[in-house]
Amino acid sequence: MILAVTGGKGGVGKSTVSYNLGMELDAVVIDGDLGMADLPAGHGPDLHDVLAGRATPLEAVDESGPVALLPCGRTLAGTRAADPTALTKTVRTVASEYDRVVIDSPAGLRCDAGLPLLAADACLLVTRPTKPAVIDALRTRELARAIGTPLARVICNRAPANNDNCNRLGTTLGAPVTTVPESPLVARAQRSGQPVHAIAPDSEPTQAFASIADAVEQMRIDTATVATNE
C-alpha cells in the first residue's frame, strides 16, 4: 500500500501526519518534498542521492529511529541533481520490500506535487479549518481526481473541538473526515523527533492517528477483496 499525504497549502501539517501515520501503519515514510524537506534528516544517503543515481532506494532507508524513514536532502545542489521522474520507481522499490509506504508530498500545485499522487494507491488530504486552507485543499482534490488517485480520507488538522468547518469538509471534499485536535503533545513530540504515540500513547491525537491508520487498512482490505472477486 502506497499512501500519499497531500494538501495544497503549506503549514497545514502534512509532515506531522505522515510521520505519525508511519508509526501507526509500521510504514516507511518517504520525504517527497525535494525542495523543502521537513522530516528528520538522516546520516546516510537520502532521496536526492537516490534520484541522482548515487544510491539505491533501499540503502537510503534509515531504520534507526522510531519510524523507518527515507529522508530528503536539504541542499539546492541536491535538488538540482535529482531526477523527479525517478520518484515513482523509487517508491515502488521501497514498497516491494517494506509493503507499506507513506509519502510526505510537497505543498502547492507545482509539477512535483503531482508525482507522489502518480506513485500512490490512495491519498490523504490534510487541511486546516480555515478558508485559505480549504480553497487550496479543493485544488489538490481536483489534481488527485485528474490523476485518478482515490481519496481515502480528509484530515482536519490542529482543529479546535467541535469545529463546524471540520464537520462540513466531508461534503465539500467528498471523503470521510478525521479531526486531529490541536495539542501541545504533538508539538512536544515534534521537537524531540518522536511520533506522539511514543510520548503519549493514550492521548487524543494518538487515537486520531490510529483511527486514520485503521481506515487506511480497511480501504486496503476492501480494495484487495474487490480485486480478488473480479
Q: What does this protein look like?
A:
This protein has a single domain, classed as Rossmann fold. The protein has helices at 14-25, 47-51, 76-81, 87-98, 114-119, 131-147, 164-173, 184-191, 196-199, 204-229; strands at 2-6, 28-31, 69-70, 101-104, 122-127, 151-159, 177-181. A 7-stranded parallel sheet has the order 3-2-4-1-5-6-7, sandwiched between helices. The protein is built from 10 helices and 7 strands. With 230 residues, the chain is an alpha/beta fold. It is globular and about 50 Å long.
List its traits:
230 residues, Rossmann fold, seven-stranded parallel sheet
In CATH's first tier, which class applies? Alpha Beta
**What is the CATH topology classification name?**
Rossmann fold
**What number of domains?**
1
Report the count of strand segments: 7
Order of helices and strands: EHEHEHHEHEHEHEHHH
Q: What coarse outline follows from CA principal-axis ratios?
A: globular
Average pLDDT over all residues: 89
The CATH homologous superfamily:
P-loop containing nucleotide triphosphate hydrolases
CATH architecture: 3-Layer(aba) Sandwich
Secondary-structure class:
alpha/beta
Report the sheet-strand fraction.
15-25%
Alpha-carbon Rg, integer: 17 Å
Q: Sketch the major β-sheet.
A: 7 strands, parallel
Q: Indicate the low-confidence ranges by residue numbers.
A: none
End-to-end distance, in Å? 19 Å
Q: How many H/I helices? A: 10
Helix content: 40-55%
